[in-house]
Design brief:
By secondary structure, the protein is mainly alpha-helical. It is 48% helix and 9% strand.
């Protein structure tokens, strides 16, 4: 088990363990893909099999009747919670919600930048 210095919210040095819950670990694209599909299934109330069949070019907003404007807010909130990212209002545009691939790329970019 290794430890490394970290900084807490106050700016003071703290020590974290690599195996501690919440330790910052990079999520692979495949793991992100699976988690995002799980989020979509949970928020939209669609079958997990239907969500698992989403591909890069699969249409989302305007194509899935379950994904209306209210569901978009729930989807983004759930992404923030489960992926531990922050989505600003300025980040949200039609392009990121047009296809599953766009949403996946958006989530991936947010994970890299945190």
């Amino acid at each position: 088990m290794s430890t490394h210095p970290a900084t807490d919210k106050s700016g003071d040095a703290a020590e974290t363990r690599d195996d501690a819950p919440g330790a910052d670990m990079a999520m692979s694209r495949a793991a992100l893909d699976n988690e995002l599909k799980s989020i979509i299934a949970d928020v939209l109330g669609i079958d997990a099999q239907q969500a698992s069949e989403l591909g890069e070019e699969s249409g989302l907003f305007g194509h899935l009747p379950e994904l209306d404007s209210m569901a978009v807010a729930g989807l983004l909130t759930e992404m923030e919670d489960r992926l531990d990212i922050v989505i600003e209002d300025d980040d949200v545009d039609g392009e990121m919600l047009e296809t599953y691939g766009g949403l996946l790329a958006f989530a991936e970019s947010k994970l890299v930048s945190r």
